[in-house]
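Entry 14. Structure prediction run on the chain below.
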Amino acid sequence: MLRGKIALFLLVTLVMLTAGAVFGVAMLKNTISELKAQADYPATATAPVAEATPDDPLTVALTDGNVAEAKRLIPSYDREARDWDDDLALAVALKDKALIRSIVEKGGNPDSALDYALTAEAAAELVRLGAKVNTDMGPKGDSHLETQALNGNAEVTEWYLKHGANANEVDSDGVSLISKVKDSLKTAVDADDKAGLSEVLAVLKRHGAKE
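Output returned:
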């Protein structure tokens, strides 16, 4: 009787061990499959775009206005591994055509930098590189023309108007650009801001703007 119980116990144990082994093999196969899938992932996935940090050498050079150093550094960066639009905005502010071109060639979007053009010459270079003065207005209704006008940049505002921008554009609420400039002029405190907005207002009127 005792021998029968022992045999039964061993049989049950053997069954449990066999089932465990089968389960273990199945788990191992799943694990191996997952590891293979993970190993293949980097080959097909798109690499994330790195955000430039404040201590990034190129960012430092552009922020410091060191054009020569920025030009030297640009070739060492991969096109796909960086968001070049912020770099392009800084380059436009530095007004160096060669620097602007080199960043656009790396992947900077010239349309994104039109709002940062401080001179007509910089705006012209961006348009030559593919930017469009009359890009579609966003959900807030702010066009490149509006941004420059409300910043009091009469030189670039007039250049945009001479190259296809609409002096009578209105936003999604139906508010005209000249009305916005007048409102900004009323609330302006700084003398330079007042002077710039006054000049913009005169430019808009010369180009037929109506409220």
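The radius of gyration is 32 Å.
Filed with the rest of this week's runs.
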